[in-house]
């Protein structure tokens, strides 16, 4: 048990902050957790760490891949085979599918990727991720999709694919500042 906790702790959040700070040449870009907590969110120094933006972007992208795959797949399936459910139910189920797919992908990456956690530790780590970030991502994607396409998946339509790209971009950008803040201020990754 003790050995698994040692392996889990770095993978949870501290490793992501260490990675960002190790890539930095300047100590001012990666202050200690206490120093980062004293920086104001309105200061330019707080928002100016390129390594932390990079790590936040990677974390957000990993989540985006899972969320988007699950969301659009479920939306297409439900509209094709269960259209009688209604648009609001389909959108809600699609969001749940996106979050579930993201958790499954993150679990697999934590187990098979560089972290090499046990399956149990990978599941616990993935389940401990920030639900705020995932719900924000899903909500942004679905709001843009709903506004541009009425929530209808039309795989043969160029307009659908353009709207899908915009919704994916919104899904990436919406939680990115939150993920940056968690890394910068608390040394915690959301993904």
From TrEMBL:
This is Uncharacterized protein.
């Amino acid at each position: 048990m003790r050995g698994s906790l040692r392996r889990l702790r770095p993978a949870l959040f501290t490793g992501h902050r260490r990675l960002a700070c190790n890539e930095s040449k300047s100590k001012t870009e990666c202050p200690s957790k206490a120093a980062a907590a004293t920086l104001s969110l309105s200061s330019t120094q707080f928002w100016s760490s390129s390594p932390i933006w990079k790590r936040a972007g990677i974390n957000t992208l990993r989540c985006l891949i899972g969320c988007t795959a699950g969301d659009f797949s479920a939306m297409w399936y439900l509209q094709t085979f269960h259209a009688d459910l209604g648009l609001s139910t389909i959108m809600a189920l699609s969001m749940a599918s996106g979050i579930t797919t993201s958790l499954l992908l993150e679990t697999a990456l934590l187990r098979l990727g560089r972290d090499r956690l046990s399956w149990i530790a990978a599941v616990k780590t993935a389940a401990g991720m920030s639900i705020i970030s995932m719900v924000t991502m899903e909500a942004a994607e679905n709001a843009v999709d709903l506004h541009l396409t009425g929530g209808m998946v039309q795989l043969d339509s160029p307009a659908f694919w353009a709207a899908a790209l915009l919704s994916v971009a919104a899904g990436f950008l919406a939680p990115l500042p939150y993920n940056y803040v968690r890394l910068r201020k608390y040394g915690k990754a959301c993904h």
